[in-house]
């Protein structure tokens, strides 16, 4: 970003947002990085950051969760690694090993799932995966922070010697303890520990009879603590070997430090990478908390924010279970400047802050709470003049301070500037201040700057109405209760509702009339006209909403009927397929019945089996001609139709009684005269047969393998 005064960040409370984001960080370094977030000047870097945060946000809702990125601060080790012959602490080695392992895990995971997380993968694409760092450190230091026995051959030998000596010390001490106990030289407690050494608790009267080194005495002096002579010699030898062990450990850690020293730059990159990941995680968690997302980046200079929430207000109301009202704001080259007017406490300032804060957040790589179809762009400068700007330190009045601020605006404003001014022109004589505000606004307009201002000045409302790329707007109020609705309406100026609000708050009517007489009649009429237009707009909005609801209802009904029609068509097809299937089963059953009858007559099994095999092979040949998909479909169709038939069976039986009388009445003659020998098929059927005989409006139809009796009115000529 080209120019961003600190005042803009303070006016729009950007630091409160970074504080809320920092609360989600899991490391102190990540928290500090979140608190230092500022707008990013390079558009490409900004988009990469936003995409990375968006991908991290998406990871919370899928199975491929990004691995943990927790780590300890590595920076204290950086200075030591720069100094020759320096040696790192064991804790520093462990922190470096853990961080290295964490980075390697993240890099390999993101590479594996790069289709899900392309931007996150690109962040570490050029970073080296180094497994040697952890391997070397783990070879020396175990998970409890102790130096391993096999860290070097010499250390292994020394520790074996230490164990042997400790065993000898214990053995010699126990021998002395037993000896002097038998002589009754020891107190009841027998032994104690002084300076991490076992000592005999000798009665004071026998202290000269026990050979060894005196290590101290009890408070009363009745007990003298003595290290036996044999143990004393072994302890001195142990101390020497322990010293050699510590020197060997220093040597090992020094060698390990020398191994890490050339890798300092890589370790720094690992550290920076993990801090960056923590800030991305924090921003993603914050986005999840405020329902934020990544909007569409427009190819041109425009802002089209739909359902935009003020993030701080939304978060506060969320915790208090209150409703937050979203706003729709549009800024583009055709309507670059929006002049918002209307009564106080209607949400004008919040609208200004919402636009400014969301733009700051977006350009700092933070997702914003808007509708997914919102369109955004980047501005080189964001300038604000919001709130009470009285400067006690500089002895400036509010108006003087604001004029000084306007001077800065006039220097910086261009076609890539977003300016936000609250109560533009106030602080001086209304007419004179309004005139000055008008010419300043005209200058911003000529520079093709983008901006929002709030005002009560009528001349600024008129200016917005006259300029093609400037638009009036107002915060909607309920015309009956005069309560704010917190909805921005573009295209018309807002009435201040001065006299209406005064009347509602109990100011006597005669005083209100006297006030009206003291001002210009034209201004009263202008304000009244605006108020009337606002009421008419609200009525039109209600009518439009009603028509939209009816249209939606009609569309839903049309869609329902279309689905019903498709369902009926599908059922007809299913019934026809079921009928054809049942007809085939009847034919097959008749064949089996003939075979059974023949076997009953001649009792010959071999011909029966041959015929059955021939019949089965014939049916299987038909099945082979069908694809697996067709077979599956037929099964599904049959299952569905059978289920529906069973559900309607009870209903059909009830209707059967009602249809009995109708069926007994003489039936209408068929439209086509049918005669013996005609090729016919049943209505909506596929199987074709010939008429063998006609008796009493019924035909005997021969289908080749079987015959059946069918009413003439159910038959049609096969064509």
Q: How large, in whole angstroms, is the Cα Rg?
A: 46 Å
Q: Output mean pLDDT.
A: 83
**Percentage of β-strand residues:** 5-15%
Poorly predicted tracts of residues: 390-395, 666-671
Query: End-to-end span in angstroms?
Result: 81 Å
CATH superfamily annotation of the largest domain = P-loop containing nucleotide triphosphate hydrolases
CATH architecture of the largest domain: 3-Layer(aba) Sandwich
Strand order of the largest sheet: 10-11-12-8-13-14
Number of helices: 21
* CATH C-level category of the largest domain: Alpha Beta
How many strands? 19
Structural class: alpha/beta
Query: How would the global form be characterised?
Result: flat
Can you tell me the CATH topology of the largest domain?
Rossmann fold
Question: Could you explain how this protein is built, in words?
Answer:
- It contains 21 helices and 19 strands.
- 28% of the residues are buried.
- The two termini are 81 Å apart.
- It has five domains: 6-147 and 259-294, Orthogonal Bundle (MutS, DNA mismatch repair protein, Chain A, domain 3), CATH 1.10.1420; 150-252, MutS, DNA mismatch repair protein, Chain A, domain 3 (Orthogonal Bundle), CATH 1.10.1420; 297-505, Rossmann fold; 573-661, no CATH class; 666-717, SH3 type barrels.
- It is flat.
- It is an alpha/beta fold and 719 residues long.
- The strands form five sheets. A six-stranded mixed β-sheet has the order 10-11-12-8-13-14, with helices on both faces.
